[in-house]
Amino acid sequence: MIAEQGFLLSEMNRRLMQILRVGLIKEVDVKNAKAKVKIGDNTLFPLRCKRH
Prior knowledge:
Oligomer: single chain
Number of domains: 1
Mean pLDDT: 84
Distance between the termini: 47 Å
């Protein structure tokens, strides 16, 4: 039973990591509400930011 719980936990972690990405904010464009986020070695993604 413990081995099965360990498998389920690792599978849940794997699936979660497919959805979530951890990155570093490198640049923010306040006017257009976008930020460039570095994920991995050299990849920059322009992402929309939420305005308050």
